[in-house]
Amino acid sequence: MKKKVIASLLFSLTICVIVAVMYKEARMNIDDEPKFSLAEEQSKDFGLSNVKTISGNPVDPHLLTESEDCAKCHQNSFDEWKVSAHARSAANDPIYESHEETFAVKEIGQDGITFCAGCHTPEALVTGSVGKTKWTSSKYEQAGTSCIMCHAISDVFPDERQGIPADASYVFSPELVHEYPFANTNKALESFLIRSAPKRHASDFSSKLYKEAEYCSSCHTQAAPNGKIEQDTYREWLNSPYADPNSSEFSTCIDCHMAPVPGERDKEVAGRTTDGGKYKKKVLDHRFVGGNQALPYLYGDQEMFKLTEKMLKSAAEIEIVDAKQENGKFDFKVKVTNKGAGHNLPTGATDLRQLWIDVEAVDENGKILFASGKLDEKMEVDPNAVMFHSKFYDEKGNLIDYHQVWRIARREDHLIPPKQSKYGEYSFTLPKNVKKITIHAKLRYRVSPQYFANVTLREFGDPGTDRTLPITDMAVTKKVIQLD
Questions:
Q1: Which of 37, 143, 213, 275 could form an S-S bond across to 123 if both were Cys, CB 3.0 to 4.6 Å?
Q2: Is the CB of residue 53 less than 8 Å from the CB of residue 173?
Q3: 251 — phi, psi (to 5°)?
Q4: CA neighbours within 13 Å on the CB side: how many for 484?
Q5: Which of 347, 318, 309 is nearest to 421 (CA)?
Q6: Whole-angstrom Cα distance, residue 7 to residue 4?
Q7: How far, in Å, CA of 328 to CA of 430, rounded?
Q8: In this structure, what DSSP letter does residue 259 have?
Q9: What H or E segment, with its residue span, contains residue 372?
Q10: Helix %, strand %, coil % for the chain, to 5?
């Protein structure tokens, strides 16, 4: 029995020595390897996307570590990410998927996919699998903006037309990640080696670049193929007080959207980013909580839905001002202030986003004297409501109402920049003998018009599934005015 135990120990020791030697050899001279330079980047063509790779060709799929593999050591970060809009950016976003198939592919063909794929389905684009089969069938289309797609980017670069990172202008470089021995043959041994010497792994998958707003700009600045801007979140931040590094209010994208406590960017929460790893003073949240409350609502994710609403409600305030009675008329204004967002309200796909004032004035008996911004029986907003959004027009001057952004020739914006206010102005004829007016006002937000969801969600869920998009009241107020 003792001989067997000794033999087993000797065998185990031998294996450990062999592994250690192989590991050491695999890491020899790694600091002497030539560093990647964007100037050496080869030309490539990934359709309408700006994505670059080191080789100039699609990457070898085996280099794409699946997000589930990352969870073996980073379970908490993975659990946060998997409910995020990043994880649900692709074929697992029913509105995006349907829009691609219903409009983009039908109108501009294969380019309708590559135009969006660099940010929405990046794994499919970089592996060259886009369009090879029905576009939602590959696991790469289902992967969303995965762990590897964010953590194996080595650089971002300015789009030639915009002068800033845009339209997926990033360099995806999984080839620069140094594989540990047994990476493709024995996951258990690979995991053992990573845990034994994690510095190389940490160095490969982290970068100062990831803390920069320009990094986010590569996907959160979008232009149509003709160069007309569709989404301009980065420049909105760049022109805000939050972009001044000398200001006490200086904040980047991750300060808000990866805050340890979503919606409270000044709070710090200690914890671990690696299971059993070093205890850190501040751990960033990988849910990337933003303004899309429709996705968690459609998925039935109540926690993520509440966090998104919390973020939305931290962004704005509303106030009733300049109320006055004059010449048989009653006039007042509703002031809306962007108090907490580092970009415009709304931002992103502002041709779809609906942010509007719902206002109602009643007399002392509760009789409605005036109303604006109400929903009709089809859940569409009063066309005369004060709406903060953008309108896109094609070359013939027609309104683009189904987000066919490749048609943009002109845009009109009615948005609220950071730290600024805009007003809704109202007036109505005042009935006689009214002694008191109570004005109720709310700032309401929806990801897209209901008519857009009716089309893009036709095949979502089981028959009878409620496809009514949620509406968040971002700010609410009222004011009572006693009349003479």
A1: 143
A2: yes
A3: -145, 140
A4: 6
A5: 318
A6: 5
A7: 6
A8: -
A9: strand 368-372
A10: 30, 20, 45
Please name the residue ranges forming H helices in 64-143.
67-70, 75-81, 94-99, 105-108, 111-120, 122-126, 139-142
Containing 478, the helix (H) or strand (E) segment is: strand 472-482
Distance in angstroms (rounded) separating the CA atoms of residues 411 and 408 = 7
Nearest residue to 360 (alpha-carbon basis) of 428, 445, 309: 428
Using an 8 Å Cβ cutoff, are 372 and 399 in contact? no
Tokens of 195: 């845990």
Rounded Cα distance, 156 and 165, in Å: 6
> Residue 390's closest CA among 159, 224, 243?
224
- Bridge-based pairing state of the strands 52-53 and 170-172: parallel
8-state DSSP, 354 = E
Tokens of 173: 């470089």
Classify burial at 94, counting beta carbons within 10 Å of its beta carbon; exposed 0-12, middle 13-18, buried 19 or more: buried
pLDDT digits (tens, 9 = 90+) for 272-294: 888 877 888 888 999 999 999 99
DSSP, collapsed to helix, strand or coil, labels residue 280 as strand
Decide: helix, strand or coil at residue 57.
coil
pTM of whole model > 0.85?
A: yes
Q: Which amino acid is at 11?
A: F
Beta-bridge mates of residue 156: 170
Average pLDDT for 160-175: 93
In contact, 219 and 400? CB cutoff 8 Å: no
Among candidates 318, 306, 410, which has minimal Cα distance to 356? 318
Q: How confident is the model at residue 186 (pLDDT cuts 50, 70, 90)?
A: low
User: Is 418 within 8 Å of 342 (Cβ atoms)?
Assistant: yes
From start to end of 394-435, where are the E strands? 399-400, 410-414, 421-429
pLDDT tens track for 196-223: 667 777 777 888 999 999 999 999 999 9
Q: How far apart are CA 470 and CA 297, in angstroms?
A: 7
Give the mean pLDDT of 361-386.
Answer: 97
- CA gap 50, 161 in Å, rounded: 11
Nearest to 217 by CA among 268, 285, 155: 155
